[in-house]
Amino acid sequence: MQKIFSLCLALLLGFTAARADEGMWLLKLMEQQHLADSLRKAGLQLPASALYNEEGTSLRECIGIFGNGCTGELVSADGLVLTNNHCGFSYVHAMSTMDHNYLQDGYFAKSRQEELPTPNLAFTFVRRITDVTAEVEAAAAKANADAYTAMSQSFLEPLAEAMLKKSEFKKMKGMTARIVPFFGANKYFLFLEQQYTDVRLVVNAPLNIAQFGGNTDNWMWPRHNADFALFRIYADKNGQPADYNKSNQPLHVKQFLPIRLGGFDKGDYTMVMGFPGSTRRYLTVSEVTMRTEKQNLPFVLVGNPHLEFLKQQMDANDSIRLQLQDDYMSLGNVVKNYGGMNEAVRKIDLVGEKRQEEAAFRQFAAQSGQPEYQNIIERIDTLCQTSGDLLFNASLLYNTIDQQSLYVPLDHIDAMVEALRSGKASKISEAKEQLLAAYDQSAGHLDIRIDRQRMQLLLPLLFKYKKEGPMPAFVTTLAECQAYYDNMYDNSVFTARERLEAALAAPNAADLLENDPMTKHWQDYSTYASANYMNHLAPFKREQAELQKIYVRGLCEMYDWAKAPDANFTLRMTYGKVCDMKPRDGVLYDWRTVLGGMFEKESDTETDYFVNERLREFYLKGNFGRYAREDGQLPTCFLSDNDITGGNSGSGVLNAKGELIGLAFDGNIESLSSDLKFNPALQRCINVDMRYVLFIIDTFGGSTYAVEEMDIRQ
User: Fold this and answer.
1) pLDDT (tens digit, 9 = 90+) per residue, 307-346?
2) pLDDT tens digit string along 23-38?
3) Please, what is the end-to-end C-alpha distance for the chain in angstroms?
4) Mean of per-residue pLDDT scores for the chain
5) Rg of the chain over CA atoms, in angstroms?
6) Nearest of 10, 11, 36, 13 to residue 575 by alpha carbon
7) Distance between CA 438 and CA 566 in Å, rounded?
8) With contact defined as beta carbons under 8 Å apart, do 110 and 688 qualify?
9) Which of 713, 710, 691 is nearest to 700 (CA)?
10) Is residue 363 within 8 Å of residue 13, measured between CB atoms?
């Protein structure tokens, strides 16, 4: 009866339960979800075991987590890793100075000796995935833990560590373990992963090549930017993870991705393996509304004027541009994403679709014999109505108060005060060293004038948009709040390093630090945040987790467990095809671009469209080496309909034979509702063509030695 009902539901909503091109699939569940048959029908020419196999060779070994939130893939036997430029952006930004601006000017190593150590960057491989649902549920029952507690890291981390110690990987260096909830915490999987911490920069394209079009082109098509970067993983003499050391050797691997130069065509099979960050496709109507109106909207309302301010500062001064570039890129990405999501949700009438799904679920619930399904939607509705303004204010505060750069971690200040009051010279010296290091990292490059102007812009927006509800103690009236901040910028010793050093040398240093306006500000804010979390956010999240677990389980049963789980930054595979796009009536976008399109977009006044002059020389001469198409043009980017989201950045786009043809780096603005609902007609994955990538590395940049390591197939 249930299967018959699910079929009727699928016909009602216009899709089949196992839609071929939808889903970020966990390959561990490939057999249970009958994915292999769908892949073969879609055009995959490899056996399914070649994608994911824990006992033998598979593509799993080639794909890893780049940094903290992106994907990278191995492209040589000696540990070369490709990812997106915007994935390496913050790391290269931290390495850059006005004298050596690797971000703006690019970097091209000419030998392994020139590869640059990249601080704080790691690359992580998945070694094993195991279903541990029974173990987690048993531990939760023993601890009498509710759904929210059972899916928290404080509960799951000890379990994961215990499982790692019992595994065959327990003696391997760099091993970590994490247990991740799936399907609304109705299933749990253990991920055993190995992290390498010596990763070095090989190639970073100049910014006006890698990010041509800037924030203006972000989430847009057509594109002409070579959004890639090349790194190399280093290891100890045994091939095991090790911190940076000159004696470390390139990581030698047995499996890496070959690269196909022979081109591809519209309709060709594509697949993407990577680590998509987060989707929420099992939401109710009220939850979709809360996401768009209470979480996304404050980012857009405050973010757009904030971006305009940052761009004005950057355009006026190259030194300030370097200082603010990372903030500007990160903020621009989120603001445009959330604004595009809200618009797309409206245009496709996602709320209407969700109402249909809710109606079908209510019918299913009535027939299921499960009492907990009967009124679950209404319980979620009530929760959203009572908590919406609370989440709106939390999002608004993050986009205003939390954007202030004048900050030094309070624990370092507390430690310094404690050391000064102890009178012990050794303790004071150690605390001072740590405090100054924290200052240099947090506020050492701060331009107080800019930070002050930023807050002069953001504070009125906070008061304009805030809802009724708890606020920090210093958020009273706008005039009083502005005076509060003026006092901090005028009198805090943390506004300049020399002022801080002078305060530390003063006889009353402990009192100065303890009573400093910046210290008091962040103490007040921390007190508010802690109380607000305990009194409001934590109870909301606890109830939300319990209700979501029930609703998602019901939906999965209704769909016969044939839908992919929501993304949660774990290794997934999506498949689709190369295709064009028809975003609206009378408009048809081609599926590919060439370098000539860059010069059609060129501007003399808009910095996003400044052309790299050296690249112009190659273009005018048609000097593209072996990377041009048969018609002599250099391909730049292409579209596919793979189901991706944030975290997939840097993921390789593979053909039916598992050969690398491009790198995924963006989605289109028309499909930004896809985190909430996949739309096959609109969703497109924007990819940089591997021929463009190799041209920049080799012909343009001269890092030919790196290309010679790769398996490049015509």
Assistant:
1) 999 999 999 999 899 888 888 999 998 999 999 999 999 9
2) 899 999 988 888 888 9
3) 53
4) 93
5) 26
6) 36
7) 37
8) no
9) 691
10) no
Phi, psi of 370 (to 5 degrees): -105, 105
DSSP state of 25: B
- Give the whole-angstrom CA distance, residue 305 versus residue 498: 33
Q: Phi and psi at residue 644, in whole multiples of 5°?
A: -135, 170
In terms of Cα–Cα distance, which of 24, 120, 204, 20 is closest to 651?
24
- DSSP code of 506? S
Question: In the chain, helix, strand, coil percent, each to 5?
Answer: 50, 15, 35
Would the pLDDT of 222 be above 50? yes
Residue given tokens 């797309």 in the structure block? 344
Beta-carbon contacts of residue 605 (< 8 Å; ≥ 6 apart): none
- 632 strand-pairing partners: none
* C-alpha to C-alpha distances, 324 to 209, 222, 397, 489, nearest whole angstrom: 19, 27, 21, 19
Q: How far apart, in whole angstroms, are the C-alpha atoms of residue 667 and residue 72?
A: 18
Sign of the dihedral through C-alpha 613, 614, 618, 621: positive
CA-based nearest residue to 186, from 226, 214, 151: 151
The answer, yes or no, to whether residue 14 has pLDDT greater than 50, is no
The pair of three-digit structure tokens given for residue 143, joined into one six-digit string: 């601890």
pLDDT digits (tens, 9 = 90+) for 414-461: 999 999 999 999 999 999 999 999 999 887 677 899 999 999 999 999
Q: Which residue has the tokens 């327990």?
A: 170
User: 631: Cβ–Cβ under 8 A, 6 or more apart, which residues?
Assistant: none
What is the dihedral angle through the alpha carbons of 203, 207, 213, 217, rounded to the nearest 10 degrees? 70
Separation of alpha carbons 662 and 654, rounded Å: 7
The pLDDT assigned to 442 comes to 82
Report the SS3 class of residue 654.
strand
d(CA 474, CA 250): 53
pLDDT at residue number 31: 84
Answer for the pair 658, 46: CB distance below 8 angstroms, yes or no: yes
Q: What percent of the chain has pLDDT over 70?
A: 97
pLDDT at position 21, please?
58
- Can you say whether the dihedral through the CA atoms of 47, 50, 54, 57 is positive or negative? positive
As annotated, the active-site residues are 86, 227, 649
Query: pTM of the entire structure?
Result: 0.88
